[in-house]
Structures are given as C-alpha cells and as structure tokens.
Hints:
- The complex is a heterodimer.
- Helices cover 22% and strands 17% of the residues of chain A.
- Chain A is of the alpha+beta class.
- Chain A has two domains: 4-30 and 77-239, Alpha-Beta Plaits (2-Layer Sandwich), CATH 3.30.70.20; 34-74, no CATH class.
- In chain A, the strands form four sheets. In chain A, strands 6-1-9 form a three-stranded mixed sheet. A two-stranded antiparallel sheet of chain A has the order 2-3. In chain A, strands 4-5 form a two-stranded antiparallel ribbon.
- By secondary structure, chain B is an alpha/beta fold.
- Chain B folds into four domains: 8-72, N-terminal domain of TfIIb (Single Sheet); 82-143 and 415-553, Rossmann fold, CATH 3.40.50; 148-157 and 172-392 and 618-639, Dimethylsulfoxide Reductase, domain 2, CATH 3.40.228; 658-820, Barwin-like endoglucanases (Beta Barrel).
- Chain B has 27 helices and 34 strands.
- The longest helix of chain B has 22 residues, at 99-120.
- Chain B is globular, with a radius of gyration of 26 Å.
- Classes of the chains: A alpha+beta, B alpha/beta.
Amino acid sequence: MKQWGFYFDQTRCVNCKACILACKSWNEDKRGDAAVNPELTWLTTGRYEEPAEYENLAGSTGEQNFADFGKYHMKENWRRVIATEYGDIPPNVDVLNLSISCNHCEEPVCVKACPMHYIYKETDFGIVLADKNKTCISCQRCRQACPWDSPQYYDDNIKKFDEYDSAKPRMTKCDLCIDRIRDGLKPACVASCPMRALDAGPMDELKQRYPDWTDKVENFPDGRIPSLDNNTKPNIIFKKKIRRV
Amino acid sequence: MKADKEMKTVMTLHPMHCGGACMLKLHMKNGRVCKVTSAGDIPREGSYVKDEALMPIQRRACLLGISEKRRIYAPDRLKYPLKQTLERGNIRGFKRITWDEALDTIADWYREMLLRKDDLGYLPIWDEGGIAPYLGPYLGRFGNPSSGNLQAATFASIGEYSKLRGNPPMDIFNAKYIVIWGNDSQATVPYLAFAMMKAKEEGIPITVVDTRYTDTASSMGTGYGNVPRYICVRPGTDSAMLSAMANVIYRKDLHDKDFLKKYCFGFYPGDSVISQSPSKHPVTGEPYVGKAFTVPKGLSFVEYLDELQEEHGGYDGVLTWASNLTGTPKDVIEEFAIQYATAKPAFICSKLTGPQRTHNGMYFSWMLIALSAMTGNITKKGGGFGEIRADDGYSVRMDPEPALTDLEANQPILFSIFNLSDVMLHGLDGRTSKELREDVLAMNKIDLGQDARLKMEMVVRGAVGGNPFNQFQNINKRTIAWDKLKYVVSYERFMTSTAAWSDIVLPTITNFEESSFRMQWVSDTFVVNGPIEHMYEAKPDRWINEQIALRLGLDYGRKNLTDRQIMEEQWSKAAVPEEYKEINPEVKLPSFEEILETANFQLPVPKEKTLIQTAAIKPGEFDTDTGRINFYSPYYAERSRMVLKVPRAQYVKPYEGYEDIIKDGGKLGAKGIRYTLQFITPHAAQRALSTYGNLPVIGEQRPQLVEMHHEDAVARDIHDGDLVYVFNDYGCIKLPVMLTKRILPGVVSIAQGACYRPSTTETYEAWFDADNDGKPEKHVGPVDVGGCTNTITTDLNSGVLDPFFCGLGLNAGGALCEISLQKPR
C-alpha cells in the first residue's frame, strides 16, 4: 500500500470555495440524507422525481423556500475552507486560508473513538472510510475526537431526531474520491481548484514534487491529542504562507 | 466503489455573464447531468504540467459553474407560462396559463402599442430581447453598468473601449511592476487570477490597491521597494490619489516629455494640434481630420497640477490632501508614484473595477490613462493604459449564426438606464427636455415637440435583458415608477425580482438545453454543448419571439434549422486568422467532431509576441477628436454632457462621500438622520450579478451579509452575526452582519446582486424625489430582507449623459448610509 494524502499551497489559495462545491457536486449521492430524499433516485433508477411545483412554493416566504430547496444538495462539508484574519485595521492586516477535508491519518483517532467499528482504514490507499455495511449510532464521538471536524452530519441538531428515525443523521466523511482515484483521476476538489493550490497522491510522491513542503502551518491544528497522549499523524503537507502582520 | 461506467462525459463552455470563460465537464446518465467537474478533470498521471500551463490554459470553473447541476434542476425553475392575477410583485398571484394564451395576450399588447405608435411616432415599449425592433422605433437603454465610466474615459482620451481593451493577460509577464487596482479577479475572472499568481511566482513585484483586503490583495501583493504590498484607499477617492501621484511624477521630472509632445494633447498649457484623427464627430458625422484644437487657458493638465498645489499649499500640501482623503500615508503615495514612474514598464491591471463604478468613476479611469500616458507606458509591452483585456486578441474567423429575419431592426430611442424610474414617471432621464428633443431628432429623426418627454408603457425583457428591476439604483422609487407601466413581460428561468414585477412570465431554457459556438470574452473558440432536452415547458427566447412574430405577421424565425446544422455550416467556413499564423505557423483547426468533443480551441500568444493595440497606432492617429491621447477633451467640452461638468482628467468630488465625513462627520439626509458610513457594493463570487442567488448550496457557503469593521460595530453595540438594518434616505435593508478586519473602519460592504425581497411585517420611511419637483418627499415602503444593494443606492447618472456613444456609467459605491441594531423609523 502507498499511503495517500493531500498537499495544500497556502500561498495560492484565494478562499474561492470551488473545492467545497466540487466535493458536493461529485459526492452528492453519498450524502447522509440521500436515502430520505426521493429526488436523488434518478441517479440510480433514471427517474427524476420532480420536486414541488412552483405554484405550491409561491405562497411561502423566501426563507421557507431556501430551506425547502435545501433538501436537494449535500449539506455535509467534507471539505472546508477556513480564513483566519490577523492584524487590526487595513492596510495592517493579513489573512491565512486553509482548505482541509479529512487528512486520512496514519493513526486515525476517529477509528479508535467509534464504538461500532463503523470507521476503518482502507488498505489500497490508506483512506479512512465509513463502512456502509455497519451501523452508525450518531453518537458523534468521532467528531469530538477529530481535531479538524472531518466527520460530518447532514444536520448537526441530531437530538431532534427520534432514535429509530430513518432520517437520523449518520456520520459521513471524505473518502478521497476513492471511486475517482481508482479510475486514475484526481479527487474532485483537486481537479477543481482554479488556483491549482490543492494536490493529492501518494505522500512520498507529493513530498518529492513539492520539495519545500512543511507539515505545519499556523492555523492548522496539529494532530496531537493531549487526552490520548497521541499524535494521529495526518497525511497532509503544505506550502506555507508567511503572514506579514 | 468504482465510478459509474454508464456515465458519459460532455465538455461544454459555461456561458455566463460574469467575465469568466470556463469549461465544464458534464457527467451524463439517462439524458441527465449527474455530476459536474471542470477542465482540470483529466487523468492524474502526468497531469502536473498541463495543470500548471498557461498556454494552453485549463479554463477551470468557479464554485458557480461546478454547482450548475443544482441550478438546472432547481425546484424553483419556472416550468410553464405564468400570469399575474394580483398586484405586481406578489408572487402568490401567479397562475399557470397555456403557451397559446400567453402568446396571444402578448401579441394583443404589441398590437395596442402599435396603435400608440400612430400617436407618438414610436412604440412606447422598452424592449430588451423581444420583437419591438422589427415593428418600429422603440425605447432602448444606453449606459453600461459594468464599464460605462471606463468607456467615458477611453472615449475622451484614447478612443472607443470596444476597439482598445487594454493589454492582454500574458502581457503582465513583460512588466517590471504590476499594480492591481480595485480588482478581485477570483470573484469574476478565475483564469486571470491564476495568471496573476503565476506572474507573482515568477518574481514580478505586485502592489494591490483596494478598499477591502480582498483575497487578491492577500495572496498577490508582494510590495516593491518601499511601496507596500497593499494600499487601502477609501471609496471614491482613488482619483485623488492618482492626481497626487501625477503631481509627484511631474514635479520630480519623471514624466516622459517626448511621449507627451508626440502623442498627447492637453498636458501642457496652450497645447495646439491640427487633427489627423481617423474618426468623426459622433453627432454631426463630420470628419475630425484637419480641424484645429487648442486647450483653453487654465484647462491643461499642468495647470490642474498648479491649481492643486496652489489650493493645498504646494507639493507637500497636495500629498497631505490626498492622504487625508484616501487614508494612505503621504510617503506611501509619493513612493508609489516614483516606483510606478521608474519601473519601466509598469502594468496597472484594473478590470471594469469598483473604483470606476462610483459617481466620479470616469475620472478614476481617465487618471489611470493620464498616468500611463505621462510615463509612456500606454504604448508599451508590459504597460498599457490601466485596463487588462480578457483575451489574447486572435480569434478563429467564423460566420455568425444566420439572422432570424431579413427585416431591418429600427434604431431605438435611447434613454439613460440609470434614470429608468424617472423615465417611467416623468419621461426624462436627466437630460433637459430640450436636450432630449435635439438628441432624438438627430438620432431617430423623430420630433418629440415642445416639452419633449418619453412615454414608456410596456416592458419586454428577454432572458438576455438581465434583471433590471433589481440591478439598477433606488428600488423603492422603482416600485412606484413600475406602477405606471401598462404591461410587463419577462422571459425568465427563475422568479427574479423583475419576473415577480411582471404581468406575464415565460419560462426559458438554460444554456444546457441548446448548442452553439461562443467566443465568451476571450479569444478562444468555445462550444456550448447542450446535452439535455428542453425541460418542462421551457422554450428558447428565439422560439418565443418567433411565435409572437407569427401572430403579428412578421417573417421571423429559424426556419427549422437545427443547432447542429447551423454549427456545421459555421465551422465549414471557419479559419485561423492569417495574423495568428505568424505567431504559430503550425496551428491547425480541429475537425468539427473534434471541436464538439473538446468544446474549446485556444490561440495562445507567448509573452514575447503579445498584441499591443496602442503600439500599432501612429502618433496623432488615435480614434479621438484631436487624434491624440487627450488629457482634455474638446468634444466633452463642446457637448457639455458630463455629469460632473469637468472635461479633463483630474479628481472631482462626487455628490456624496468621504468629503462629507471629513467636513461634517457625515451627511444630514432629507430625513434628518446623519449618515456616517460609506458603503461599497462589490461583485461577489457567490453570484454572477443576480444569478445563483437562489441556490442554497452556494448561499450556505457564502451568505449575503454586510461586512463591517470591529471598531464600527463596537460603537453601535453590534456583534458578529447580528441582524442589522442598513439604511439611508433611499431605503432600508435588513441582513446579517459579518465583522472583519478586512475593511476600513467607516466603510461597509454589501455584495451586489441579491434579489430585493420586501418584508411582510416591517416598513421604513424613505425620502426621495419621485414627483420630480427637485425636492425629496416621504415614501413609506417595506424593509428589504433580500439584501439588495439597490435599496440604498440613488438613481444618479455618472460619466457622460450622451447617447451618441457609450460613456454613461453606474454610480454604486462610496455613498453614505448608517447601520443600527434597532429598526430605524
């Protein structure tokens, strides 16, 4: 096995969020509420369940429409872009951007935290995956354990769902577009980046391609988990932006 | 898990009006778009070189393109013709009607307007994409919100913007110093941002000038010598900074005297020239060649600089003045001027930017041209006149699509789009009735008579006509004005504000439901491959027009040609231009099948061979009245149509802005409230103008909000995420606030393009002049909860109010407002 991971060029990222939307576009059918939303069945059956007619929606307010229409896309943020501001008043300011998804750690703390063995480290690429054949009980221990918020739920308000509700949000997470990389393609986020700030591949290959890599940037929480006396060893390397204020 | 093998891919252009030109890769199954990726989606093995290349460049899409599937299949797509049964703006009143009923009704309305034509001499229809042009003289807009002020500046000084668009993107690699002025290209032109990043990585120094610390400022700025990486200028004061810089360059003797003498007019006092211009007087059509021009006493540029020194107390006083206005330290302005003048060549990249979309925006663009002329950069590789063009300048020659009719289109009677509401209310657009009468007589040969006024009774807006209800200033006045209209027809895909304020709304298809060739701003050949069937009852615009024309007995339509037949015919005669063969003799046009498959064919130009249009023009033969590069415009002086009265490159105070804050701590409005904050309305990455604002998948990542500095928030007891009221005399918006360090205290920012949505519970007392007595009066209307910036902008023209060329611009930034946590009265 060659361990795969990400490269992120912090000097290039302009926080455009194309990576987030590319992830959602590609992985929409893997989202947590796909099963409870008939609209997506056409992906597999070829039938497109037309959503509510305009007439029925016309009476609702804008906010209501926004929520209604929100049923149809992926809410989980498998990838996130964080912009951290420094300084005080322009021009004395600077911003560091950070685009991260799951870092597919060497020693994933989420795997250890899960009481249901729902999460495992796959062996071809070292991808940390959620096992669809097992059960997630929505206990959120994986998310609490992860320093980067990688485990995601389509609705964070899990308490409002009944225990046996089929719509109860189950954990989903970045799978490094394993379907794409098996086909020799780049993950969707990497392929989309308009600034070419993202890359993914076997870690040794990435380190060779980007010789000035570093494993730390300022606004990236590292993988040390004090309570567990452990380092999860995230598989992500960076080109660091030096902040100027 | 493996990728779905049944999925087929289709490459297509993402045709959008944003300024970008991006490729989408549609992953199709069962005739539907399942997933969307972009030009970077190629096999990983060995892709690194292609990914990083600029020639050819992968035209990767932004978050909007990637999310297109959610727009095509959005539940709120308009699916069938709708008719309003209640008052305009009330979307509950729309009822489904048949196509026949809709088209018959519209044809009847056209017939009624044809009868009005017998009285008026023209059709009182404002037509944007309908068939009125083939029925008689009609009403059309002039003024360009994206670039009008820039066009006013170029028309005065170097010629029409449509002919001179700045140096191409690859030319920034020839610069010794790059200045990005007010340009956040990641939000509008993704490929340009990547080219700029590459220039930075090659080690070319960059300074970014902007009111906000954009991500362009953050990621591109490097600084140059003692010039910082980022210079923050208050809205509407950019031209004051440029004037002070011009003074530094002149006093330090850094200007290019030979160039000024050979190429320019109006720099030196008493400048005289016999014109060798190839152009003609826009109104009379008289050639300029042989005419003598002299700059009047006191109106040369040097006299302006003397005036500045006299008024502000010498060289240092001018720097102090500019520093107080812009908020930039004196030494930074001075150093910036020196470095810009001595780094030869220096490239200023401004691209239809915000500083130009202000009340004095024309003078900003003109001052950029003035500085470029003083330093001789204007005709140089790696220099230019302040704008960067989108393309490399060479395109495949191809016939246009066959015309839909042999009928000749009538010349419209033009009105200022920025005074749309006044035209609806009183028939005047800022011009006097005498000026209007003269203009229409000269252009349309129609005499509107004494007390000339325009009558607008019907509006027909095709899908190409934008979202004018929403996208022009002063919405509250427009809701009053709109009531005057008898009929409004919209062709639309979604229930935009304009559609909501229409009587009949016709559903149109998306660009994924028809195919054609496009150029899309850049010089590539693109194919829009529309792989999906027409959805619901939606139709193409041309089909709608064809059906109405049929009812009115006009010979109009496509005559059963398919998209593919038309494209095949076009491609059979396509050719690479001879000039381009000198750049790349090997170039070969792809076959028809190949171009359909790749959907993109580029004619890239290396930096050594960039096309510099200004360099090809002989001194004295520019397309201006004098034939020279003008610091002073005789045509503008003679016509006297400048909104701010000044026919010279210089700083001119806008109707309101930071000077009011310096002087009185703000401006007391007609309502009796003092407005102390300047607002700006930049283009945002979350929308292309008002398109995509309805998609939650994007709104979640980039919500509509007002950006404000912590200092201003503390003073108003406002916290991050609070719902606040942003208001002035014209209206009130309620939206969430985001506190940030990226914006100057005293300035707030709301992204333009969100759709106006009247609150059902909260009202606001606005004050503006709708009865045309020159005085504002009280109007009570709803608070806008949609976050539309035009709720608080005022409908003033800017640039030049002259329909004989395009030089009328949008005034959307730098004006004043106030923000509070409590609802203002």
